[in-house]
Structure formats: structure tokens, C-alpha cells
């Protein structure tokens, strides 16, 4: 099955799109790049919905004649079909369960809180809609609380080098891509969190040059007062 053509539909402004893009490049899985512009609502076109992803969302894949949506489902599919290295998704039961634990936890926590703050603070004004500052403050407070939990529980206040333990896994890539997103809205999650900042740099170094390649557009639009890597 792994010999069939793999098409990857993505937009690098999308956090899970970046995570899977980094994984595909890092693991050298052959794939066809199929960028889709969320800003132009290309993912909502009738052609896309009918022929690519019935849910009209990114990322998604077509592998031969098999279509699949949802980033975590895609990751697990790729890990089976292409027999990814253990470090991405360990075969040992307890180690794999720890990666799965984070991937399940993050949906209603890191992903939800960072995305809600980003969407309301950054996307809403772009759409010409009024922003309620009290709501921004509430969403920021929720996100800050969640980031503090992440640093305390998943990084063990710096005693764990990576989310699932001693080795980098896909859980780290997913988490880092989500935590990068609020920078676009002027919030630097690294400030006041030295353990989180050190972990983000470890993930970046371990997955470069693909990490910076995936985040190039995010770096470009991040406010100048927030430090970002210089990428050509």
C-alpha cells in the first residue's frame, strides 16, 4: 500500500498542517504537495468538498483511492502504512500510550485554548468584525493557564526533555506547532516559561530545516517585537 501515490493537502497557516508537513519531510515519505489557501476558502469549494475532503477542512490526504481527514488519524495511518521510526510513535505499549495520551489531551486543551485566542484576536479583526477586549483578556487568561499546565505536567518543569519522555515524538511536533500560533496575535508563549522556551528550541533544532520551512510564513507575519528565527 505504501507504494501508492500520496497527496497531501495543507495550508502552512494551519497548525496541524504544519505538524504533518514536518513529519512527512522528516521521515522522507514521498508525497505530492497540494497547497490549499484557507484565506481564499479554497477548502470550501464544491470541487474540494466533493473530490478531496467531504468535511472541507485541512489537512487531509489522498493515498491511491483512499481519502482521509483529521491530522491525528492521518498520523496514525502514516505510522502504520510507512512503518515510521519508533521515535515518532513508539511500538512499546506504555511509550506509545504516553504519546497517545498527549494527542488526546491536546484537543480540548493546548489546541483549543491557543486556537481560540488566535482566531478571536487575529482573525476576527481581519474579517472587519469588532473585537471585545474583555473576551480577548478572558481567552488569553485561559490560554496562559493551559500553557502553565503544559509546562508543569508535560515537561515536568524542565525535568523532561520532551512531552512523552526522553525522546522526541510526534506529540512534540503537534504541541510546538500549536504553541507557535499565538505569536501571530502578539503573544509570546515563551515569556516567563524558560522550560517551555528551551523545549520549543529543542523541537525546532531536532526537526530543522523542516520546522523553520513550515513556520516561515508564521515568522513573516509575527509582530517584530517577538523574536523569530531568520529564514531565507
From TrEMBL:
Reactions listed under catalytic activity: RX + glutathione = an S-substituted glutathione + a halide anion + H(+)
UniProt EC number: 2.5.1.18
Pfam families named in the record: GST_C, GST_N
Domain GST N-terminal stretches: 4-86
Cited PANTHER family: GH16740P-RELATED, PTHR43917
Location(s) in or outside the cell: Cytoplasm
Entry protein name: glutathione transferase
GO molecular function, one term: glutathione transferase activity
Leading EC class: transferase
Example of a GO biological process term: glutathione metabolic process
Keyword line: Cytoplasm, Transferase
Family: Belongs to the GST superfamily. Theta family.
Quaternary organization: Homodimer.
Transport listed as a keyword: no
